[in-house]
Design goal:
By secondary structure, this protein is mostly beta strands. It has 5 helices and 57 strands. It folds into 3 domains: 301 residues, Methylamine Dehydrogenase, Chain H (7 Propeller); 134 residues, no CATH class; 174 residues, no CATH class. Strands 1, 33, 34, 35, 41, 42, 43 and 44 form an 8-stranded mixed beta sheet that branches. α2 crosses α3. The longest helix has 11 residues. The protein is globular. The two termini are 33 Å apart.
């Protein structure tokens, strides 16, 4: 529809980290100081009257606006089909003047990582970077000679990634693009309609054939592609690496974690999208706004959109793009050169009714400042590739503030803030070719390559560096929901500060304040195993709390509270059982395993996530056994199955599993059947890339079997399925002893 779509600008949201996956969220700070000023009487130029459809304002009378980016609530930049850019104050847009920046015309998309820098791309494979306040003299340069550039995303002032209509991407420095290398993301028929890069190391692209591909910009690393299930995708936006939302021509959205997309569930937000959701912007992980071809906006919580009622905001022309610099302000641009600015919480009310607004004011020539709010969610930082009994996690919500005042003759530093996740969150600021690294747990610092004029080495040579210790307190009560036990472990506030003179007679000062929240979960497979092994709720509670450790931290846990919650739901853990097999199925099973195929090599799925879902199943009958085959895992494959499927700290003896001969590449059904079982109940466990589910099964005639409904989406990668009989495990002298019986199989889906 219309033209290429911009994903808009947005702030960081929450990031979920699965196991020990390492990623970086980064943002380049604009060389400006943000100042809050009182709001004066609202100008009528925007045409916003309470309770009415907002009146569009013409900002470009000579072109069709194709994309818009708003680096602040006081500044937006749009590009048009004639090669012009137009920069305006969305709260007072009248009088804006388009400026030519690309003589080839047809600008497709624009991204503005700061108020003084924007980069636009065109169908000729060119990119043009300009200062929206003074765009004169901007010169486009060729960055992609193989395709028409459709979309661009710039996570920092020094890095942009663009995608083209021939299945490729290119990453470049917008200030000095040179001759960057184009990398193929798919086939030549892949038309990447939109790209979003929430960090310097992670991007996601979407196309018209329902494909979503995550990739590291610059070609270094592994790409992952999955099918979203929403059809032809127009746009995608990612306020953080853990929270991306794509929107389709059919008015549906899908929300996913960039590091572990799993199998996201589509949701409708605009059932009459006028041919397409033309734009999406997500200023936070809790809010996204789309715009459709009829001029209706839809605002929703991306993870749980519920029922959404679209509201008309542009009745005169087809909107092509949207940007939301805050949760209280969005701006759309349309094919008639018009803009409309509105509050997504109340689209027909005037914008600017809040008591304050924001404008920008330049600092002194050699002073730079920023104020960022990163949020992280970190799962299982100390888990191995095995499925652990307990999945520990913590989340961080903090604010980083900083300022550098350097001598006037000093070169401007490159400000960036990143949080690489390994053993502890680490704050990194890069400048003058080096970096200043801070461990946010301890406050320890190190300087490399003379960053910011500081002396190399560990710790500041003078002045201050301090941190308050982590002492979690105030844990909420535990809960048992859907077979998963969640144990909050408390929260703590901490802060860190740094101040140091530089060799350029200036100074660098930083501060970090945040709130850490800790917790642990015990998934349905672990709880079912403890219950089926014959443990009482009290004994199970002892096992769980005995395994709850966190290196370097201690928690105050109310054992009575945890055990009481567990005991209250203990008897209901095995309620979801299924088995409709007759005695005659025993002979069929024995015949199948006599011809079992040995599998001796299989690696773990990636990403490997906690087993926290309840598998969707239907009963297996004797008549469903036709066409099954059997696998027997041996050697490395048997070891992998034990570590991945068995979450209790006990061993397992591997047996054959009768299964469907092929694992569906996309959504479908999988039949599994185990025999020679000794207990009364077994546990189905199925694990794949970004997916882990379990379900209790009845054992009748020594058999347990079920038909599993697999999640929607692309199933590419390594999968394991198993049926566990925990009767051989006993609890004695404070530990689990004995072995479970595990019938397992594995598939590698291409």
């Amino acid at each position: 529809m219309g033209g290429p779509r911009s994903s808009g600008a947005g702030s960081f949201g929450s990031v979920r980290w699965v196991h020990c996956l390492t990623a970086i969220v980064a943002l380049a700070a604009a060389v400006t100081l943000v100042i809050a000023l009182p709001v004066s009487a609202r100008s009528t130029e925007s045409g916003l009257a309470a309770g009415t459809v907002p009146e569009p304002v013409t900002v470009d009378s000579g072109g069709s606006l194709s994309s818009v980016a708003c680096p602040s609530i006081a500044q937006c930049t749009a590009v048009d089909s004639a090669g012009d850019e137009v920069t305006f104050d969305p709260q007072s847009p009248a009088g804006a003047k388009p400026q030519l920046v690309d003589t080839n015309g047809g600008l497709q998309a624009v991204a503005c990582p700061g108020v003084d820098q924007c980069t636009a791309v065109d169908p000729a494979g060119q990119a043009v970077t300009f200062d929206p306040g003074s765009p004169t003299g901007a010169m486009p340069g060729l960055v992609d000679g193989d395709g028409s550039l459709e979309s661009v995303s710039c996570p920092s002032l020094m890095q942009c990634t663009a995608t083209d209509n021939s299945g490729g991407d290119v990453t470049f420095d917008p200030q000095a693009p040179g001759h960057p290398t184009r990398y193929p993301l798919g086939t030549s028929i892949d038309d990447w309609t939109s790209v979003a890069c929430p960090s310097l190391s992670q991007c996601v692209a979407v196309d018209v054939s329902d494909s979503v591909t995550t990739f590291p910009p610059g070609g270094a690393g592994t790409t992952t592609t999955f099918t979203s299930g929403i059809g032809s995708i127009e746009v995608v936006a990612c306020p953080s690496s853990g929270d991306c939302t794509a929107a389709s021509v059919g008015g549906e959205i899908v929300n996913f974690d960039l590091a572990a997309p799993g199998n996201p569930t589509p949701a409708p937000v605009d059932s009459d999208a006028g041919g397409a959701l033309d734009g999406i912007a997500c200023p936070s992980a809790q809010q996204c706004t789309t715009i459709d071809g009829y001029g209706y906006e839809a605002t929703f919580t991306p993870a749980t959109p519920g029922t959404v009622t679209p509201v008309e905001v542009d009745s005169s022309a087809e909107p092509y793009a949207i940007a939301c610099p805050s949760t209280a302000q969005c701006t759309i641009v349309d094919g008639d050169g018009q803009e409309v600015t509105f509050n997504p919480a109340s689209p027909t009310s005037p914008v600017g009714s809040a008591p304050t607004t924001t404008t920008t004011s330049p600092l002194a020539p050699a002073s730079y400042g920023f104020d960022l709010s990163p949020h992280l969610r970190w799962y299982d930082p100390y888990a191995s590739t095995s499925a652990p009994l307990i999945n520990t996690w913590f989340s961080v919500a903090g604010t980083v503030r900083g300022k550098a005042s350097l001598a006037p003759q000093s070169a401007a530093p490159t400000f960036s803030v990143s949080l690489p996740i390994d053993r502890a969150p680490q704050l990194t600021m890069g400048g003058a070719g080096g970096s200043l690294d801070i461990d946010t747990f301890s406050g320890a610092t190190s300087v490399t390559s003379g960053a910011f004029g500081l002396r190399d080495g560990d710790g500041p040579p003078a002045n201050t560096s301090s941190s308050t210790p982590l002492k979690p307190t105030g844990a909420a009560p535990p809960t048992l929901t859907g077979g998963t036990l969640t144990i909050p472990l408390g929260a703590t506030n901490t802060s860190w500060s740094f101040s140091e003179p530089t060799s350029s007679k200036g100074a660098v000062s930083l501060s970090w304040t945040d709130a850490f929240t800790f917790g642990a979960t015990v998934g349905p497979s672990s709880l079912a195993g403890l219950e089926q092994a014959g443990l009482s709720a009290e004994s199970a509670c002892q096992v769980i709390l005995g395994n709850l450790t966190w290196p370097g931290l201690s928690f105050s846990i109310d054992m009575h509270q945890v055990c009481s919650v567990l005991a209250a739901g203990w008897d209901s853990l095995g309620a979801s059982e299924s088995n409709a097999l007759s005695a005659s199925a025993t002979a069929t099973f024995q015949k199948l395993i006599r011809h079992a195929k040995d599998i001796d090599s299989a690696s773990a799925p990636s990403p490997l996530v906690p087993i926290s879902l309840t598998a969707s199943t239907r009963p297996l009958t004797t008549t469903n056994l036709r066409g099954l085959s059997a696998q027997r895992l041996v050697g490395a494959a048997a070891k992998s199955a034990t570590s991945i499927l068995l979450s209790l700290s006990a061993g397992a003896t591997i047996y054959p599993l009768a299964v469907s001969p092929r694992f569906p590449a996309t959504r479908g059904k999988l039949t599994v059947l185990a025999g020679d079982l000794k207990g009364k109940r077994a546990e189905l466990v199925i694990v794949g890339p970004g997916y882990g589910a379990a379900r209790a099964l009845k054992i009748t005639h020594g058999l347990a079997g079920v038909i599993v409904r697999l999640p929607r989406g692309n199933h590419a990668g390594r999968w394991f399925a198993g049926i566990l009989d925990f009767r051989g495990i006993r609890y004695a002298h404070g530990t689990l002893r004995g072995k479970a019986r595990l019938a397992a199989a594995t598939w590698n889906v291409g």
